[in-house]
């Protein structure tokens, strides 16, 4: 493309509608977060061997049938 | 961290200890390992759900509670938590379904509240409203929820009073303070908004120093604080985004960016959609490529901030990616109705059409313009009526409305004018401006473009001076804040009307300010005087006086390390090319001395131009050839042409 040298054409301003920042909308009141259940995790997550031992300790003579 | 050894007999204390210290991610890791051995462990699932909820990882929390509802259908809480998690994960349909399966009487109030929240989230406002109206009216939550509904209806004054009333009952709560600030923001009452935001931020810093507010701005590299429930409860993310939004609206762009970096630090993957959007928007100037990536990514998210779509399209237009804009508009036809106002849609479509069919675009813009001018006339009348009634409040409001309407009209008018401008039909551009004078004569962009269009019509130098001069005079104490082309064109207009004295005085003034700046910051590039000289030099070259013109151009770029930039080089090389062309055609003779000066000049450009690009890379395009896209390369090329001719 070729054109004769002329005066420098200034840039014609074409402003755009303004950009809009985002905001977090107001939130409805929430229900309380889930409550924390309490467990004896040592009992729940023990290895099988330990658990067997625990059950053994708990068992008396009357539980023999269940134990076996 | 991956292999935390659980000591026999200390499992309970270890895990509950972590939860107490809010080390949720560590707890989650251990619990996940346990879950592999005991896939149906109620303890593991329940604690995992708890921790994930605290970490705001609602999708995975929902998963845990879902399994618990299957394993323990008798525990109604789990069904409630399941529905709650789904709601927070924005899975509204599923949340509603689960919430309907809870039938224990003792939960009825909670379920009602939850369902209202679900409907609100899903934008079913009438549905949410009827549920909220069933809630006990003495519960402050009901007041807050009604406030949210009023807010969505655009009734900000009433919404604000609801939030304020709720806070009077419950005492200070950061989320309520945020809501109040937000109402003020929507009504453009920025100073009360900022005051409430400051309270939220101060409270957050005081209660939770561990959230590292402001550390990133200070330049400290801080670890992510994660998206914890604690962070959510401080409303800090909300407050900092709102602060950034206000500063952005006030055009304090640096403060806007700072508000975003002041926010408690999180990694980019952890950012919520609003923050991600604002980071993209407010850093467009320095990292447009990343900005476009983020906005395009957001468009795939559900939900994304409603502003995303319009902003992305406008930014495509700004960077002249008209085809991309057209594609995105076509691919997302379903979004246009929801996210674009009719005005914005018409405007974007017209600008895109301008590329392929200027006539069609002009017609569309003309239709828009008549709508806008009609609105402006009505508002003018309204302002006058308010003045007659001496209602100050109403005057203020209607003047604001008029200004808003004018800000909508100006882009339309300028797009229309640009169609004629590009065809160099300056007479028509001037006509358009004459027609719009009654609305726009106070508008800066309008005045500037009027000046330009007079400047471009040979023989209207005097009139051009009349428009350029006030712009310059307005900023006479800080002349470098005026764009260089305005200063240059004013100088040219002076010279063309034989007012050389004025031109010289203005140039001395610019030189003085540049020297002052060079003293304060020697490495900063300033182009004003350089561009003025380039424009004048070009003018002389264009009139055939190459020896004087070229010497101006050569002088304009000294010292090279401060003056060589993509734009200045562009205008300098145009003059050289024109000189070379005229020499090749034997139209002009140039003294050897001048030619030697040209070659010496190009040598200097070659030396200082290694790191100066001739074309700035575009954010969405492949970067240009690194070697060729330098002033050094082009200067060498021009030098060869000179030597060939010589």
From TrEMBL, chain B:
Belongs to the TTC30/dfy-1/fleer family. Its main location: other. This is Tetratricopeptide repeat protein 30. One of its GO terms (molecular function) is intraciliary transport particle B binding. Required for polyglutamylation of axonemal tubulin. Plays a role in anterograde intraflagellar transport (IFT), the process by which cilia precursors are transported from the base of the cilium to the site of their incorporation at the tip. It comes from the Eukaryota. The keyword Repeat applies. The keyword Lipid biosynthesis does not apply. SMART domains: TPR. GO terms for biological process: intraciliary transport. It is found in: Cell projection, Cilium. Keywords: Cell projection, Cilium, Cilium biogenesis/degradation, Coiled coil, Repeat, TPR repeat. GO terms for cellular component: axonemal microtubule; intraciliary transport particle B. It comes from Bugula neritina.
